[in-house]
Amino acid sequence: MSLGTVIVTGASRGIGAATAIGAARRGYDVLVNFAGNRGAAQTVVGAVEEAGAKAVAVQADVSRPEDVKRIFEAADAMAPLVGLVNNAGIVAPAMRVDEMDVERIERILAVNVTGTMLCAIEAVKRMSTRHGGKGGAIVNLSSAAAKLGAPSTYVDYAAAKGAIDSFTVGLALEVAGEGIRVNAVRPGIIATDIHAAGGDPDRAHRIASSLPIPRAGTAEEVANAILWLLSEEASYSTGTILAVTGGRAIAP
Asked: Which residues belong to any copy of the Ketoreductase domain (predicted)?
């Protein structure tokens, strides 16, 4: 019997794909959101179904309100919504702030911040006891960059993830009495293809030797943290930002 439906945004690859598959293995049905790679999304759907869960793939840009509504309307046709993983995010090629243009900055903020907030709005409308829901959990994806700043790499992305930290805490306090827990995971150096999108595909492995645990983390290790926060095992945790950084010290 399904535990309910979890929406995972940006679920066609990396941490999102690992989370979707892990959720299925734990008994959730999964809505697999993807931006462009339908083939990869269908592969994830196949893995979810192989794990014994139901899945549907929905192409949508989370920065667009009409697309976000389409994601949640598709989820409405599935088992009751119990969780949202706001994983969709982008980086742009490494550069200094004084080299950035407004189009880049607006796009980074639109996907990483606005998209997260738009999805959370729709999730709260369905899960909050204030709106007749039965509660649930939201997990946002932050980044160690939010605390480290990512100078000369992607300060815009770091700033976006700083906003996610603030949003996580604020929303958690707002809906704590309505049956919804809101937490975040803060990955550090993780071996996914997001580094290639930033123009440095070998970045994770190059930096890994400097970490207390001297290797890059895996998408599955981050997914396990996300899935714990989604679960009833984390029933007394809200407003928490859980670092998965290989022991890398960052400011609280």
From this structure: 4-210
Could you list the active site residues?
A: 157
CA dihedral (70, 76, 78, 84) positive or negative: positive
Chain segment 128-138, per-residue pLDDT in tens: 999 999 999 99
> Is the pLDDT reported for residue 230 higher than 70?
yes
Whether pLDDT at 209 is above 90: no
Residue 48 identity (one-letter amino acid): V
Residue 186 has pLDDT above 70, yes or no: yes
Instruction: Give the up-direction half-sphere exposure of residue 142: CA atoms within 13 A in the CB hemisphere.
Output: 30
Instruction: Kindly indicate the confidence band of residue 251, based on its pLDDT and cuts at 50, 70 and 90.
Output: low
Mean pLDDT of 98-114: 98
Nearest to 126 by CA among 178, 57, 174: 178
Record the tokens describing residue 107, joined without a space.
Answer: 């796009």
Measured CA distances, 235 to 27, 135, 144, 181, 232 (Å): 17, 11, 24, 8, 5
Cα–Cα distance measured from residue 168 to residue 34, given in angstroms and rounded to the nearest whole number = 23
CATH 3.40.50.720 is held by the domain 5-244? yes
Between CA 172 and CA 178 the distance in angstroms is 10
What is the edge-to-edge ordering of all strands in the sheet holding 81-86? 55-59, 29-34, 5-8, 81-86, 136-141, 180-187, 241-244
Query: What span, in angstroms and rounded, lies between the C-alpha atoms of 140 and 241?
Result: 9
**98's tokens:** 């004084």
